[in-house]
Design a protein that fits this description.
The chain folds into 2 domains: 260 residues, no CATH class; 121 residues, Conserved hypothetical protein from pyrococcus furiosus pfu- 392566-001, domain 2 (2-Layer Sandwich). 31% of the residues lie in helices and 24% in strands. It has 13 helices and 21 strands. Strands 1, 4, 5, 6, 8, 9, 10, 11 and 12 form a 9-stranded mixed sheet that branches. A hairpin with a 5-residue loop joins strand 9 and strand 10. Helix 4 packs parallel to helix 6 and helix 6 packs across helix 9. The chain is globular and about 70 Å long. The mean pLDDT is 96.
């Protein structure tokens, strides 16, 4: 069984693509999605967040929501907004955000490889979020939200990708968030076979984002295999929709922390308490860390630069040596008393795409007492954690740019 394979993608007709593609379902609230679709009857948000077409206050996990998503999906197919390619293809997908560019391959990835840890994970999943994705897949009989994968870059793969991108793009869209989405269909059978073989020779792939979508696809496949014990393993339900980028093109932004209080400490007592683990320097401007082990800290009216003391950095543990762990283990837990950042309401997280001014705003408004700017987790660290069979701490990575929903979907036959 191949690690990845081509598939007959369901995608917008080129003239409709700009109307269809939408941000991922999990980056917008229902209220934001309602505003986003005004005047956009073919937006994919009608499929990925179909509660927007039901009365305000509708439970987004109610059966009526999944039924509405199915209805909207079938309508877009019936009206010819979405059409399926006649032959299995790979798709080359390029994202450009400002000066950053990354180009990957849209493929169907093996669920058996995922189950065998050849598609490696770095995150725990929540059953309720898995259940939501399972119901969505079952309602549509399709996977519409791609899993974001990465691999250790291989020049032979990139040479083929580069040749494909010399041709005319099938879709080229400047989205309203400023990100350019470009898609080429790889139809050449020799290129397709070469890509399949090159990925088959790889040890593994890594999930960057999409743990709930891949876990849900695995659950759906297991249920279908139980229902159809004569299945061969080649059925489409044994694969999941993925976009795969080389590791050297991935962009991870900082994932910053904001805290509601200083755990009953005065500012002076708090600063004194953290000096056992960090050197602390007063700064006159905003602090964006320039290396691992360095942190910015903001309390109303004042920035500080913190550097972890070398003896506090574990030498060999791939999780505990991460910056997010160093801050958690040496300051947030022992000084601020937040032992479970996944559930504690005294801490919140701010993606680096919002910039350091957002940290200042939230502290100066009185909503938060202090904020920490982080150095981004590297893709090499993510891979090391996954290779060790461990998981990253919560809110360790913020990937940009985001993949579009609706550009290519994977129908289950």
């Amino acid at each position: 069984m191949s690690l990845i394979r081509p598939f007959t993608g369901l995608r917008p007709m080129p003239r409709r693509a700009a109307e269809v593609i939408a941000p991922p379902y999990d980056v917008l609230s229902t209220e934001e999605a309602r505003l986003r679709v005004q005047g956009k009857s073919w937006s994919f948000l009608h499929i990925s967040k179909p509660e927007i077409d039901l009365p305000v206050g509708t439970d987004p996990h109610s059966p009526a929501v999944y039924a509405k998503g199915k209805e909207n999906f079938q309508k877009m197919i019936k009206e010819g907004v979405l059409a399926r390619d006649p032959e299995p293809c790979y798709y080359v997908y390029r994202l450009i955000m400002g000066a950053h560019q990354q180009t990957g391959i849209v493929a169907a990835a093996s669920i058996r490889a995922y189950d065998a840890n050849r598609v490696r994970k770095h995150e725990f999943t929540r059953p309720d979020k898995e259940d939501d994705r399972v119901r969505q897949i079952e309602a549509l009989n399709a996977q519409t939200g791609p899993v974001f994968l990465t691999y250790r870059h291989a020049s032979a793969v990139e040479e083929i990708v580069d040749r494909v991108t010399l041709g005319t793009a099938d879709v080229d869209i400047d989205a309203d968030d400023g990100v350019q989405h470009t898609l080429w269909v790889m139809r050449d059978s020799h290129q397709i076979d070469a890509i399949t073989g090159l990925f088959d020779s790889m040890d593994c792939l890594y999930i960057a984002d999409g743990h709930h979508r891949s876990a849900a696809a695995s659950r759906v496949a297991a249920a279908w295999r139980a229902k159809y014990p004569q299945s061969t393993g080649n059925e489409s339900f044994n694969y999941f929709l993925a976009v795969i980028f080389p590791d050297n093109q991935m962009q991870i932004l900082d994932y910053n922390r904001v805290l509601k209080d200083l755990n009953s400490l005065s500012r002076a007592s708090f600063l004194q308490a953290i000096e056992s683990a960090f050197t602390v320097k007063v700064e006159s401007t905003m602090v964006k860390p320039g290396r691992t082990g360095e942190f910015g800290m903001y309390m109303k009216g004042q920035w500080y630069r913190l550097n972890i003391k070398p003896e506090r950095i574990p030498a060999s543990d791939p999780v505990r040596r991460l910056d997010v762990s160093l801050l958690q283990d040496n300051l947030i837990a022992p000084v601020l008393g937040i032992d479970d950042p996944r559930r504690d309401k005294r801490i919140d997280f701010v993606g680096g795409i919002r910039g350091l001014k957002e940290l200042v705003r939230r502290v100066d408004s009185g909503e938060m007492a202090c904020a920490f700017s982080m150095y981004p987790t590297s893709i090499a660290d993510l891979m090391a954690v996954a290779d060790a069979g461990q998981v990253l701490p919560p809110k360790s990575t913020w990937f940009e740019p985001k993949l579009a929903d609706g550009l290519v979907s994977h129908v289950l036959d």
